[in-house]
Write a structure and sequence with these properties.
With about 240 residues, this protein is of the alpha+beta class. Helix content is about 50%, strand content about 20%. It has one domain: Heat Shock Protein 90, CATH 3.30.565. Helix 1 packs antiparallel against helix 2.
Length: about 240
């Protein structure tokens, strides 16, 4: 793997980059909407009914995109876990892995699993943790499109904290793209607001965890999720 991208961005840096992405997305949409409506107004009398509907549909599409962007901003601002508690990680892990084995088998993706070597408890919210794991795994599955012998490794490593590694042998991404994966509202797809990994990052941080990633184009990616282990003296039954 060529490069590791940490989550060690200051709040100011994240805000600046997120605002830049919002300006770009919203600015493009507003400009497109303005031009569409101007053309429609200038040619309304000459356009057929079918042509008018076509331009109005384009305009509505841009309004829908702006509404989606606002909804993404609202969801991101709310993406925080207010109540964390000890989770029996091994039971959570076994249930989630079994579910994913069946799911990936149906997609003809080979799954290799390394279970944690000891029992432990981590801080978090089990429902949110499931969403986080699913989002990262879904990205790995998407990266395997058109890959020969697609494979995903899921590894649980226990030291001072719990680290989960989700590895794929998919398309990977280059260093310039890698630098942007955790920045809110960034996406290569102009019609998508790019909230997957940034939302995951924010949720993990609110649970005392973190996420990093390394990747190489044409080789694959590793995503590292770190969860805070509950000290033995503070563990619940």
């Amino acid at each position: 793997m060529s490069q590791n991208i940490d989550t060690d961005l200051t709040s100011g840096e994240l805000l600046d980059r997120a605002l830049s992405n919002i300006r770009h997305l919203l600015g493009n949409s507003v400009s497109t909407l303005k031009i569409t409506l101007e053309v429609l107004v200038d040619n309304y009398g000459d356009f057929s009914e079918e042509k008018r509907i076509e331009f109005l549909t384009r305009a509505v599409g841009q309004v829908d995109m702006q509404q989606h962007l606002l909804e993404s901003m609202r969801n991101y601002s709310r993406s925080i876990v207010n109540r964390v508690q000890p989770i029996q990680f091994n039971a959570f892990w076994e249930g989630w892995v079994q579910e994913k084995k069946e799911e990936l088998a149906q997609k003809n993706i080979r799954l290799r699993v390394k279970d944690p070597e000891a029992t432990c408890q981590v801080l978090g919210d089990s429902k949110v943790l499931r969403l986080v794991f699913n989002a990262v795994l879904d990205n790995a599955v998407d990266a395997l499109v058109d890959t020969d012998n697609p494979q995903i490794d899921i590894i649980a490593l226990l030291d001072d904290n719990m680290q989960i590694v989700i590895r794929d042998n998919g398309c990977g991404i280059g260093p310039d793209e890698l630098k942007k994966v955790f920045i809110p509202f960034y996406s290569k797809d102009k019609d998508v607001s790019g909230m997957g990994l940034p939302m995951v990052r924010k949720l993990l941080i609110s649970m005392g965890g973190s996420i990093t990633m390394d990747s190489s184009a044409g080789i694959g990616s590793n995503v590292f999720i770190r969860l805070k282990q509950v000290p033995v003296q503070e563990q619940t039954e």
